[in-house]
Amino acid sequence: MSLEKLKIIPQFKINTLNISLSIIWLFHLSGIIGILYLNSSWFVSVTPLILTINFILLVLNSWKTKNFLKILILSFSLGFISELLGVNYGLIFGNYSYGELMGYKFFGVPILIGTNWTILLVCSASIAKEFSEKFWLKIIFGIGLMLLLDLLIEPIAPILDYWKFEGGIPTFKNYIGWFGVSLPLHFFFHYWKVNINSYFTHHLFLLQLLFFMILLLKINDLKIIDL
């Protein structure tokens, strides 16, 4: 009798989801180890590539979902426009500017930041829909997840050359702005019933949470990184 029939060796299906999960776990764990203990500058410099890969994998695992394209366009556009207003006029989030790490900019805003808004929205909203059937509770819970991640990122962002606020730290206006921009995005995600069944979004959000949580705990070590 074969080991497979005895179920001693678990079966691993080679499909888009499992390949995608393997890639994001490998990249995020490697990033944590690399930034903290190896060539920190190099691992930080590949952030645009990792963000691009995350976005591509998100699309590959979600594109068949009804209304996914609509929420992708909305989140990318609204997120990017809000950043344009923030960087150039100090509106919504306060006075801040982006570093050079995130790649090509349009009026001071990296093009990739639109993909980041899409990733955060889709991941947080997909998790939120699992916790409640009530429309507004799903929206508030999803916004809360996005704000939680932003709270972890903000102290690390200037160290990694993501962005920097005037005065060094974001004001309360930043978090009000995040709430204001996230609200319509989460509203339409659930209004359009974007029912993503793949657990890729759950893993990706968890990994980003762990990534920035660990870096935040090691923030004293990060301050000596030469970028």
Labels describing this entry:
65% helix; 227 residues; disordered N terminus; 10 helices; mainly alpha; 4% strand; two-stranded antiparallel ribbon
Please tell me the overall pLDDT: 86
Which structural category fits the helices and strands?
A: mainly alpha
* Fraction of residues in β-strands: under 5%
List the domain count as a whole number.
1
Q: Percent range for helical residues?
A: 55-70%
Low-confidence stretches are 1-10
Q: What's the arrangement of strands in the largest beta sheet?
A: 1-4
Radius of gyration: 19 Å
Shape: globular
How many helices? 10
Q: Give the topology string: H per helix, E per strand.
A: HHHHHEEEHHEHHH
C-alpha termini separation: 57 Å
| Major pleated sheet | 2 strands, antiparallel
Per DSSP E runs of 2 or more residues, the count of β-strands stands at 4
Structure in words:
By secondary structure, this protein is mainly alpha-helical. It has one domain. It is built from ten helices and four strands. The strands form two sheets. Strands 1-4 form a two-stranded antiparallel ribbon. A two-stranded antiparallel sheet has the order 2-3. Helix 2 packs antiparallel against helix 4, helix 2 packs parallel to helix 9 and helix 6 crosses helix 7.
